Amino acid sequence: MMRYLIILLIFGSQISCSKEKDPEDTKPIVSAVYTNISYGSDALQVMDVYLPEKRNVKTTKTIVVIHGGGWVGGDKTEMTILIDSLQKRMKNYAFINLNYRLAVNNSINVFPSQENDVKSGIEFYLSKSGEYLVSKDLVVLGGSAGGHLALLHSYKNDPEKHVKAVVDFFGPSNLVAAWNDGLIQQLVLIGAIGKTYDQDPQIYIQSSPVNFITAQTPPTIALQGGQDFVVLPAQSQILINKLNSAGVSNQLVLYPADGHGFSGPNTIDAYNKVQSFIEQHVR
């Protein structure tokens, strides 16, 4: 009798435990937004995190978004419209919208501060993948100076190859060539780097994404305005030529009548092409 009583007690305990776990196991994973999450001690070292519903650590990938502003201005809020548009197209993706320290007076937070912040911000986010229920697979997207930082991180600072694709909206790819493009470009670069090319050629070389392209570089789409007088179309062509030489999958999207940014139907077309490129290359 005692033997059967013990068996019943054990069996009953197992049923009880099972019942306690059931509600948690079936609890739906809802979408979430976290704003101004700090990844460093500076007030600008913050990010917004957008997590989709039904996410999981095996299949939910993340698009990292980096704003522009010549490395001396801009803010992540400028990219919320883009994120909203891509969220509607790519509902299963998480997004992070990254701020970084800005260069001031040609001397404070100059290069490579921005490069280091992107690296630190992404590493911080990846360290939270279990908590956020996302995988460590990334797409890195940026516009203008943010495009440069997206390229630089993905080509130079991703040894574990988390980045599966790069989206470059009219970002500089070769700062040495950009220095020779004209006075406007030189003034912008001095503001970000704090030195002329002649004073420190190495920082220009080490901050140029094209110098880190290899056969293992992730697929890249570059979108460029043909009338861009800030980041000349030649910068995108230099990038594409180097990617082709290394055998890296790539796409160049040129809008001949647009400048430093796209307008009207070209904006929608750009988003559609970005979506198509990511769907093609990121599995």
Task: Please describe what this structure looks like.
By secondary structure, the protein is α/β, with parallel strands linked by helices. It has one domain: Alpha/Beta hydrolase fold, catalytic domain (Rossmann fold), CATH 3.40.50.1820. 42% of the residues lie in helices and 17% in strands. It has an 8-stranded mixed sheet, sandwiched between helices. A hairpin with a 7-residue loop joins strand 1 and strand 2. Helix 3 crosses helix 5. The protein starts with a helix and ends with a helix. The N terminus is likely disordered.
- Strand percentage: 15-25%
CATH domain class name: Alpha Beta
Please tally the helical runs, counting DSSP H or I stretches of 4 or more residues. Answer: 10
String of helices and strands = HEEEHEHHEHEHHHEHEH
The general outline is globular
Q: Number of domains in the coordinates?
A: 1
End-to-end separation in angstroms reads: 59 Å
Features:
Rossmann fold; 10 helices; 283 residues; single chain; globular; 8-stranded mixed beta sheet; alpha/beta
List the SSEs and their pairings.
Blueprint: H1 2-25, E1 32-38, E2 46-51, E3 62-66, H2 80-89, E4 94-98, H3 113-127, H4 129-132, E5 138-143, H5 145-156, E6 163-169, H6 175-179, H7 183-193, H8 201-206, E7 220-225, H9 233-246, E8 250-255, H10 265-281
Parallel strand pairs: 3-4, 3-5, 5-6, 6-7, 7-8
Antiparallel strand pairs: 1-2, 2-4
Helix pairs in contact: 3-5
